[in-house]
Amino acid sequence: LQTADTMAQSPQAVMGLLESVWEPAKRAAERERQDMEAFIAGQGQQIDIEPWDWRYYAEKVRQAQYNFDESLIKPYLSLDSMVAAIFDVANKLFGISFVHRPDIDAYHPDVKIYEVHEAVDGVDKVIAIFIHDNLFRPHKRSGAWMSEFRTQTRNTPDGSSVIPVVINNNNFTPGNEAMPCLLSFDDAVTLFHEFGHGCHGMLSAVTYLRLSGTSVLRAFVELPSQLMEHWLTEAAVLKQHARHYKAGEPIPGDLLNKLVAARSFQQGFATIEYAACALVDQALHALPSYEGLDLKEFEKTELARLGMPQGIVMR
Predict the structure, then answer these.
(1) Residues acting as catalytic residues
(2) Are 167 and 146 contacting, i.e. CB atoms less than 8 angstroms apart?
(3) In terms of C-beta density within 10 A (0-12 exposed, 13-18 middle, 19 or more buried), how is residue 188 classed?
(4) Which residues, including other chains, have CB under 8 Å from residue 13's CB and lie 6 or more apart?
């Protein structure tokens, strides 16, 4: 019943998805262990890697293998260029365009307002208003989020669609006269992520408010944002939009390759950590009865059945 109205629809589908990533993750984690053991051996030592050792030696291997400083990426990720990137991606994916309206007064000078246009039956129409509030300022709520001042619906007297007013809030460090606002790669991921939520609201085309925009079941609400995130790591997007804020040159290929490699580092370990928790949780909820259950013993037995890699624990 808990999964009946989710994307998975059944416990069997949940287990199928988790098990499909479990074995590949174990193999990846084993390769990561071997890399750490090789590093330790190179230091003239030999130890069995325990859970409290893993992150320490993983960082040593990361420094040795990649020696990658993510601050080298920032000059290529100006806020303006990354905003152009998300608008370009939305145009290519959804056929929408963003028209800046500086003539409309916002609640703060840093805030930008856009009309969102789409060609409907050959006619250009405004389908949403998008408000972009990207910069940190005193007294602004921390974090990043999407919300709506007005939500799309067709539940109107004449059946016409209400134009949504959608806002993305971020808290990026403002630039200055010498240097524009430059984003870390994680900041750029956040920009794309929240824009995915924004597109969910702006492209809504439903009758009832109950299902409008992000007012959907929790299993689905993060999907548009997660999908939008992935476009940032597409080489075509970065090569077109990640340009040095001074020279205008595109991000070098070797720097891009180092970024991709570093971002995928230790993904076996990370996947094992969360997948183990989910698998044990699913197995626990599948028990017909909890009478006489020894939870500690149950976890131990289930992890042994799964073949939990040594040196990694549930977190």
Answers:
(1) 194
(2) yes
(3) buried
(4) 3
Token digits of residue 12 = 């069997």
Using a 10 angstrom Cβ sphere, with 0-12 exposed, 13-18 middle and 19 or more buried, the burial of residue 198 is buried
CA distance 178 to 168: 26
Q: Which residue in 147, 135, 269, 143 sits closest to 200, CA to CA?
A: 147
**Position 117 confidence tier, pLDDT thresholds 50, 70, 90:** very high
| Pairwise CA distance, residues 280 & 301, whole Å | 10
Using left for φ > 0, alpha for ψ between -120 and 50, and beta otherwise, residue 289 falls in beta
The string over 210-224, giving b where at least 16 C-beta atoms fall within 10 Å of a residue's C-beta and e elsewhere, is eebbbbbeeeeeeeb
pLDDT at 1: 61
Nearest by Cα to 307 from 284, 275, 282, 285: 275
Q: Which of 12, 4, 54 is nearest to 269 (CA)?
A: 54
- Do 68 and 259 meet the contact criterion of CB atoms below 8 Å apart? yes
User: pTM of the full predicted structure?
Assistant: 0.87
Residues near 294 by beta carbon (within 8 Å), at least 6 away in sequence: none
Distance CA 179, CA 176 (A): 5
In tens, the pLDDT along 60-89 reads: 998 888 877 888 999 999 999 999 999 999
